[in-house]
Amino acid sequence: MRWAPSAASRGGNGRVEAPVTLRGYLLCVFAAFGGILFGYDSGYISGVLAMENFQHTFGSAPDYTISTMQKSLIVSILSAGTFFGALIAGSVADWIGRRSTIIAGCIIFSVGVVLQVAASSVGVLVPGRLIAGFGVGFVSAIIILYMSEVAPKAVRGAIVSGYQFFITIGLMLASVVDQGTHAVDNSGSYRIPMGLQWLWALILGTGLFLLPESPRHYVKKGRLDDAAISLSKLRGQPIDSPYIRDELAELVANYRFESEHMQSSWLDCFRGGWAPSGNFRRVFLGIALQMMQQWTGVNFIFYYGTTFFKQVGIKNEFLISIITTIVNVVSTPISFWTIEKLGRRMLLIYGAVGMLVCEFIIAIVGTVDEGSKAAGLCLIVFTCLYIFCFATTWGPAAWVVIGEIFPLPIRAKGVALSTASNWLWNFVIGYITPYMVDEDKGDMKAKVFFVWGATCTMCVLFAYFLVPETKGLSLEQVDRMLEETTPRKSAKWQPTDSYANGDADKIDAITSQNLEHREKV
Ligand code: BGC
């Protein structure tokens, strides 16, 4: 069955892609489920910290308070774990494979969850969060890599956006579960939200056992017959079909070409200077893109929204917070379509424009008419519009682009560095925000949105000048495009040639020989 929603390839070299089947689509999209780990884990802790039972167990007598330092340690240690986890995963994924690294991440994560659930002191809880964070770091970096490498090019953006969709579901589930258990009169109130994390890891880890490894990983390891088997499962085509032969030939030829020109060490990630196709430029782009995604200010809403809404005099602050997570979930699927139709670059440019307009409106109205009903209403409406703009653009597109811009020799490390940057800035912004808005500190109130409006303006400039259009190209064609054009002209670039011209037969001969040999053995 042909099933290619919004398929939009830019072709020109005569190669025909295998039709996207529903089964193939579902195989590729399953890994997106890992987004739940990311979203749920970042989301559940704020509600748990406020639970009475939790404070009684972890706080110190006589009034069972948890000190500010302990609180920020409990919250931020996860980001420390994820940061290092993501970085290390970059090497592990090249070594044991993408799929196995994600499964390893789930196992590490589970150890962290067991410690958290068993903990009755901060001394056990913190290492538990650190270890779980380490696992989330593995999962969050390598899922993007895996999905980008297994997906057919026409729906790659939509498939990777699925990951963002699951992040938003994870965030929403966390606030719903916290809401549901906070009144439980025993340790179940916080142990249930903690224990549930394990379920997500179990589903992801078990499901991945059944999925094939990334064919590009096998190509990198020189295991062409395994790459062919993997591709044939993913595309739902017989191993000797012209689709599989052609796609494999392109992967192999491109990898050979690239590895003649570059090595794959950490140091090599920083070589090549400022040329658009240079490794340094691409790594800079990935790291900066994830930094900018945090600079949009989105986590101000998700981490501090409740406190902030209350501070500026809005009643029902919990309800409003849940509404923002729901807007986030329902808006994200729009990007499945727009990311392939309008492209990554357009989404990033217009999304940031939309967000900065909302932010400046909130800031201006909130400052001029502080505390009024109108300012409150304006804050709620424009916060929801702002989340809509984020969820349909920067939320998914930042992840999609980092999966597409690196050449295979350094792809795992490039994606890992970019993901680590997301976690680093997630931490930095989470850490400095209270200093800007707390009443006894900066007390900026709605003026804080001037800061986010300004950082969002930088996001527009960044996307306009530096982000290339990668829609509809195979990952190998993206390499070519970066060599031949500039970000601003990239949307018009068409692939004209293939590295694999004439190679398909040779590679086919090698893989069939190997496969025959394996069958005999
Ligand atoms: C970001 C997270 C954010 C989430 C909100 C993700 O893409 O990386 O930091 O909390 O989107 O949906």
Structure summarized in a few sentences:
By secondary structure, this protein is mainly alpha-helical.
Please tell me the overall pLDDT.
89
SSE ordering: HHHHHHHHHHHHHHHHHHHHHH
Low-pLDDT windows of residues: 1-7
How many angstroms does the end-to-end distance come to? 34 Å
Residue fraction in strands: under 5%
**Tally of contiguous helical segments:** 22
Number of strands: 0
Main sheet specs = none
- Nearest-angstrom radius of gyration? 23 Å
Percent range for helical residues?
A: over 70%
Content-based structural category: mainly alpha
Hetero groups in this structure are: beta-D-glucopyranose
Shape: globular
What does this structure look like?
The protein is mainly α and 521 residues long. Helix content is 73%, strand content 0%. It is built from 22 helices and no strands. It has helices at 22-29, 35-49, 52-58, 68-96, 98-118, 122-150, 156-181, 188-209, 215-220, 224-235, 242-261, 279-295, 298-311, 317-331, 334-341, 344-368, 373-392, 394-404, 408-437, 448-466, 475-484, 504-520. Helix 5 runs antiparallel to helix 8 and helix 13 (298-311) runs antiparallel to helix 14 (317-331). The longest helix has 30 residues, at 408-437. The radius of gyration is 23 Å and the shape is globular. It starts with 21 loop residues before the first helix and ends with a helix. 55% of the residues are buried. Mean pLDDT is 89; it is low at 1-7. The site of beta-D-glucopyranose (BGC) has 12 residues, from helix 7, helix 13 and helix 19. Keywords: Membrane, Transmembrane, Transmembrane helix, Transport. The chain crosses the membrane at residues 20-40, 73-95, 102-124, 130-147, 154-174, 194-211, 283-306, 318-339, 346-368, 374-402, 414-437, 449-467. This is General substrate transporter. Residues 485-521 are annotated as: Disordered. One of its GO terms (cellular component) is membrane.
